[in-house]
Amino acid sequence: QSALTQPASVSGSPGQSITISCTGTSSDVGTYNYVSWYQQHPGKAPKLMIYEVSNRPSGVSSRFSGSKSGNTASLTISGLQAEDEADYYCSSYTSSSIVVFGGGTKLTVL
Amino acid sequence: QVQLQESGPGLVKPSQTLSLTCTVSGASVSSGDYYWSWIRQHPGKGLEWIGFIHNSEYTYYNPSLKSRLIISADTSRNLFSLKLTSVTAADTAVYYCARGRYDLGDLHYFDYWGQGIRVTVSS
Q1: What is the pLDDT of residue A2?
Q2: Which of A6, A95, A109, B13 meets the CB 3.0–4.6 Å disulfide criterion with A102?
């Protein structure tokens, strides 16, 4: 069982917006603003999409945004495109000085 | 441009030692600015952080693997390595090396990843 809880799957139509949640505890997401999100296409390495809750690395589309409230972080993708179909993982630093990941969410673009 | 490349055997026998290397270009493993990390992904599953090496000598491991794990660095060849002893089928996974960014000692995120190497533990 993963330390952070994500929905197994979400879906949306092109142009729509979707949000993926990532629920942790007061020992990780709730305390630290060190939540990051990764996109993984089949057979590929994860790619950093959001770091420190809401920051986008250079080159990542502004359609991707992150936020946090309490013990839950969220990734929102607006204006869904076919290329966004992938697995998404959240990650957080913890009070045990380790990094934990969520179990991943499969995004399907209908 | 930063690039990381894993290498090593794709098949390891149970009870033996899994040894992988990550060759880095575009950045220095001796730099104190990063945590050079290993992460694995079991088949069809999520990601698991394994551990990191910093400044070529300081290491920090996931407690779940600590008793079997050694991460080291070779600054002359700009690479870092993972050794996992007494492997079982549960260690079958894709292993990634990645560059970790940190501040005030806390590991924040991984900004560059290798392509991953699939390792199967089987006799």
Answers
A1: 55
A2: A6
Per-residue pLDDT, B120: 97
As a whole number, the mean pLDDT across chain B is: 95
* Interface probe with A: pick from B65, B103, B104, B109, most Cβ of A within 10 Å: B109
Kindly state the average pLDDT of the residues A46-68: 97
Closest residue in B to A102 (Cα) is: B46
What is the β-pairing status of strands A86-93 and A105-109? antiparallel
* pLDDT digit string, tens, across residues B33-64: 899 999 999 998 899 999 999 998 899 999 99
The DSSP H or E segment spanning A14 is none
Residue B47 CB-density burial (10 A; 0-12 exposed, 13-18 middle, 19+ buried): buried
User: Please, which pLDDT band fits residue A3 given cuts at 50, 70 and 90?
Assistant: confident
Cα four-point dihedral sign B104, B110, B116, B119: positive
Would strands B11-12 and B117-121 be described as parallel, antiparallel, or unpaired? parallel
Cα angle: B106, vertex B22, B40; to 5 degrees: 65
**Which pLDDT score, from 0 to 100, does residue A1 have?**
46
* Residue A98, pLDDT above cutoff 60: yes
Q: How far is B41 from chain A (nearest CA, A)?
A: 10
Closest among B118, B116, B95, B114 to B4, alpha carbons compared? B114
Whether residue B63 and residue A101 make contact (CB cut-off 8 A), yes or no, is no
Structure tokens at A68: 């946090």
